[in-house]
Design brief:
This protein is mostly loops. The chain is built from 1 helix and no strands.
């Protein structure tokens, strides 16, 4: 299995439903924000 490299285009869309996304850790918050998702961290 090859992994995507810089410049590769996605072959499918990823859709996240509105609401809390508990499967992501707090350390991923900057990456989610960079993708344009509004974020808020709760303890």
């Amino acid at each position: 299995m090859d992994f995507a490299r810089a410049g590769n285009k996605a072959t499918y869309a990823v859709v996240l439903d509105a609401g809390p996304l508990e499967q992501f850790t707090h350390s991923m918050e900057p990456q989610l924000r960079q993708l344009g998702l509004p974020t808020a961290l709760k303890k």
